[in-house]
């Protein structure tokens, strides 16, 4: 079915420009256009629109959003603006808009906007999870890849992985992806992007899971600045319900920045008979500077043997901090899966590693649903 569009744009020149884009876009028909939202509300119903594009550069138009959703319950409302602003974006979505599009837009961007926002709407609030490890080789990337698959499958909502392990990011290898664009380009370009155009920087794994891959060369890591990195994550929050960020080991500007944005930071360490507990304790001491550390920081141990509730409790006692999850030692499964680009989760869903990760996914989804209710 074609989209029957009502366009509201105060600026005469922009109105002409956008009208011709809509007329030339396959699958779209310009049903009516107005300079004033009051006119569209009064006269637009006869056109039976199913898509309304409302200019919000004119700030006064924001107050009309609820009237549009009431007057045109069968239509999706997208706000259009000449620049992206994270605060406006969450405001318009709360008021009832499905999404936000930067103008002037092309026919392709309009098509992508309705595909991306049309069904589910923009994510009103999204959970960012940062995965931090005190030292390298923690099992963190394996955990994130499998957890993201599990979250996408169980929740049916959109999930993204951001590979911010700037020097040694290997998420692309895990998923057998050959990225056209990476975190370096996304962060570099963010000031010219909107959620729709940012989405294209993420590589698709399946309908609900996308990955923003890491840098191709370690020295590109210097190209990622913190402020635009933060802006990029904030923008991604309007595309995905869950965002999992893979961080480089240890404390560095990017891991600190990501932990500050994140709702939850997972500290991940692999048990290998060394000093993992001490490393974890030292990292926790740093995070304890946050007054709400216990809510925001959770610990996970990987390669735990035997991997059961007793062991989880024992590790927690020694650590002096609760352990949120334990992941069993499954070297063969994990490496066999990595070699063929498939995930342990898919290769053997009844395996203890898959079961423990699925349990963690359930608890993350449960927290979210609990909060919404
Ligand atoms: N649960 C596990 N049990 C056994 N080996 C694991 C487990 N998770 C990861 N590994 C292995 O440990 C190594 C590092 O894992 P990886 O996920 O890349 O960790 P990191 O991202 O912290 O460097 C890999 O060789 C991987 O196959
Ligand atoms: Mg890794």
Layout: helices, strands, pairs:
Elements (H helix, E strand, L loop, with lengths): L2 E6 L3 H13 L3 E7 L2 H7 L7 E5 L9 H7 L4 E6 L4 H10 L3 E4 L4 H12 L8 E6 L7 H16 L3 E5 L7 H4 L8 H7 L5 H5 L3 E4 L2 E4 L13 H11 L5 E5 L6 H9 L2 E7 L5 H12 L5 H4 E8 L4 H11 L3 E6 L2 H9 L4 H4 L4 H21 L1
Parallel strand pairs: 1-2, 1-3, 3-4, 4-5, 6-10, 6-11, 7-9, 7-10, 11-12, 12-13
Antiparallel strand pairs: 8-9
Magnesium ion (MG) binds next to helix 6.
Task: Provide keyphrases for this structure.
373 residues, alpha/beta, Rossmann fold, 5-stranded parallel β-sheet, 17 helices, 13 strands, 43% helix, binds adenosine-5'-diphosphate, binds magnesium ion
Task: Give a summary of the structure in a few sentences.
By secondary structure, the protein is of the alpha/beta class. The chain is built from 17 helices and 13 strands. It has 2 domains: 3-118, Rossmann fold, CATH 3.40.50; 127-372, Rossmann fold (3-Layer(aba) Sandwich).
The largest sheet, given as strand count, sense and whether it forms a barrel, is:
8 strands, mixed
- Name every ligand kind in the structure: adenosine-5'-diphosphate, magnesium ion
In the CATH hierarchy, what is the architecture of the largest domain at level 2?
A: 3-Layer(aba) Sandwich
Domain count, please report it. 2
- Low-pLDDT residue intervals, each spanning 5 or more residues: none
By CATH reckoning, the class of the largest domain would read Alpha Beta
**What's the helix count?**
17
Q: Approximately how much beta-strand content do the residues carry?
A: 15-25%
Rg (CA only): 23 Å
DSSP strand tally: 13
In the CATH scheme, what's the topology name of the largest domain? Rossmann fold
């Amino acid at each position: 079915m074609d989209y029957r569009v009502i366009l509201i744009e105060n600026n005469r020149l922009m109105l002409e420009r956008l009208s011709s884009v809509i007329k030339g876009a396959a699958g779209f028909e310009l049903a009516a256009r107005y300079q004033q939202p009051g006119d569209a509300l009064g006269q637009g119903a006869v056109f039976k629109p199913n898509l309304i594009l409302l200019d919000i550069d004119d700030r006064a138009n924001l107050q009309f959003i609820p009237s549009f959703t009431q007057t045109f319950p069968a239509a999706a409302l997208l706000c259009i603006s000449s620049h992206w602003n994270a605060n406006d974006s969450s405001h318009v979505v709360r008021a009832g808009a499905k999404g936000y599009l930067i103008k002037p837009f092309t026919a392709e961007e309009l098509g992508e906007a309705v595909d991306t926002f049309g069904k589910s709407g923009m994510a009103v609030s999204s959970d960012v999870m940062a995965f931090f490890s005190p030292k390298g080789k923690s099992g963190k990337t394996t955990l994130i890849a499998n957890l993201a698959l599990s979250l996408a499958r169980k929740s049916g909502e959109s999930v993204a992985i951001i590979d911010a392990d700037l020097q040694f990011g290997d998420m692309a290898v895990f998923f057998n992806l050959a990225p056209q664009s990476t975190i370096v380009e996304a962060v570099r370009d963010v000031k010219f992007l909107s959620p729709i155009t940012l989405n294209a920087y993420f590589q698709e794994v399946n309908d609900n899971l996308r990955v923003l891959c890491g840098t191709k060369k370690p020295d590109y890591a210097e190209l990622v600045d913190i402020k635009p990195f933060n802006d990029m994550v904030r923008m991604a929050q309007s595309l995905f319900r869950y965002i999992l960020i893979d961080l480089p080991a240890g404390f560095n500007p990017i891991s600190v920045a990501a932990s500050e944005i994140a709702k939850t930071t997972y500290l991940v360490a692999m048990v290998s008979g060394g000093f993992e507990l001490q490393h974890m304790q030292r990292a926790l001491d740093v995070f304890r500077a946050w007054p709400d550390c216990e809510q925001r920081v959770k610990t996970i141990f990987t390669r735990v043997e035997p991997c059961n509730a007793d062991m989880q409790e024992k590790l927690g006692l020694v650590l002096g901090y609760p352990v949120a999850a334990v992941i069993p030692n499954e070297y063969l499964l994990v490496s066999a899966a990595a070699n063929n680009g498939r995930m342990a989760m898919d290769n053997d869903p009844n395996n203890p590693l898959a079961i423990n990760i699925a349990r963690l996914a359930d608890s993350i989804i449960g927290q979210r649903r609990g909060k919404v209710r």
